[in-house]
Sequence to fold (349 residues):
Amino acid sequence: MDESTKFQRPADYLYFCDMKIREIKLPEQPLLLAPMEDITDAPFRQLCKRFGADLVFSEFVSADALIRNVKTTLKKLHSHPDEHPYGIQLYGKEIEPMVEAARVATEWEPDLIDLNFGCPVRKVAMKGAGAGLLRDIPLLVRMTAEVVKATPLPVTVKTRLGWDDENKIIVELAEMLQDVGIAALTIHGRTRAQLYSGQADWSLIGEVKRNPRMHIPIIGNGDIDSALKAREAFDKYGVDAVMIGRAAIGRPWIFREIRHFLKSGTQLPAVTVGEQVDLLREYLRRVGLDTEEGRAVRSMRKFFAVALKGLPDFKETRVSLLRANTYAETEELLKAIVDRWGDYPAHSA
Fold:
């Protein structure tokens, strides 16, 4: 790496130090699991924890639905002791419901409350929630300030660079959010207009980190799908932690791969399809503990679609797997996959 582009830490900064989000202590160069709707349920978080995720988050939780006690929303708040530290992420477009939702979420005893100001999907952002709040910065900052006052837990924020290329306001916004009391800031290196297209731009994330006024942890997010990219995020942009999202779907062992590389500089042997199928079976078993059979099997389709990529002549088996509705059908297909492709390296990234 060219020394002129490498992040220069202050002379008094101890590089090999732990990171703290207020009283939450995380290891050096922590790896976080991003909150993802319909993905980061408790069974998935537990798998990622086992492979080394240092901090995990709930699926994003609607403030309005939470204060109305909607059953499916309340279910998202359930966690297990081995998930901690664990954060509940909230989203909404109005201050009072967000404040009340933060109070309700606090009673579920997470380690922190995270505010979603980054979700770009139309049904959220165009209604003024998620990344939609990037079009009303005064409201976003007031909402954050009131939530900070409403809970004794650390409050963190996840957001984007700005609404679009003409409004990349993250450097100024980061200072505003720190000033109203947030304990850490996660920045996804895209604007709302980009959705998930193109490449994440980490240069502004690095600029926020280099800002001498900033003293809270800065967490980088976007396109971290390999150990090499994680190392670059730490070394070139100076972030305190990296957050991994889509790359962990179907590949929860990515946390172990990155941690090993950061410590040793060497790559672990590839996980095989057989090992991957064992993890899919375990995840299905965990989901089935509190969900009826058909729903549990159908919930696996998004993981099957992503996890079992790249296998030769796999189309027919893939279609059958995505149409299965029972444990027996699913297990028969998984066994056939292992028999034929079990020794192949599992899809990565």
Remarks:
- The two ends are 23 Å apart (CA to CA).
- The beta strands are 19-21, 24-26, 31-33, 56-62, 86-91, 112-117, 155-160, 184-188, 218-221, 241-244.
- Confidence is low (pLDDT under 50) at residues 1-16.
